[in-house]
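QA checklist item 7 of 12: single-chain prediction sanity check.
[x] sequence parsed
[x] length recorded as 302
[x] structure emitted
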Amino acid sequence: MSRFRPLFSLGYVVSRGLRGMAQAPVVQLLAVSTMAVCMLLLGVVMLVWSNAQGIVHAWGLDVPVTVYLVDHAEPAAVDLMVERIGALPEVTRVERVSSEQALERLAEGLGEDGALVEGLDPAVLPPSLEIELAPGIDPDFGHVLAEGLAEQPMVEEVAVAGAWAGRAHDLLRTLEDLALGAGLLVSLACMAIVWSTIRLGVYARRAELQILRLVGGTDRFVHGPFVFEGMVQGALGAGLALGILWVGFDAAAPFLERGLSLLFAGGALRFFSPQELAIGVALGAGLGLLGARAAVGRYAEV
């Protein structure tokens, strides 16, 4: 019988936690709604940041140097050039882009208007090499590298991202800092909300807690229902926030896509993946757990 004791304890924790939430539905609704507002703020910042990264990638601003090759460049010579460029300590990545891949990217960038390039001969777009430089490299290195590559017989043209590309990356770093700051503030706010709600529940059930202590209830057994309540509040708040965010994104995406297609960045917008949604709900549950443990650790001792 003792081997089933953990299952009985878990069953009690879940059932008592749900009954505790049902005893104060208004308080629970306020807690979940307030957490949803906080998580919605974080979700908006993260969604803007992730989509800004996608737009920068669609525009090719994450590739400081692009080398356009002449038609029918010798594959062996191109392979040798790629090997030499990749061996430079200032270079982190060299990617070959064929004419077919370039045409596919153009169609994706046009979004709904991608059908305009159907039937277009890929040969009109030259093959290229995309060179990514290491972080912190002097911007002048890109120009020096471009001048050297332009002298190669198989190179038709070399394009170097200008100063506005640097400003785009500065904007991304700013959005990243905002996401981190919002994450910290939201975490503290969510834990404070759960902490306050659980504290009220502890005060309302102090007589029950005293009885559980008298009959030998352990800390885990006594605190479990409150911790479960906190986790449910956090998960519901995060789920509600993500649902609201999805509805807003679904409504705004068609209008934004039309504008981005004019800037050759159509298809760059995306919502959170199922894995990211699961992480968001788990984050809410984790914050609820921490807030609840802090509350019961201080107020549930009788």
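[x] summary fact logged: The chain has two domains: 2-58+166-299, 62-160.
[ ] second reviewer sign-off
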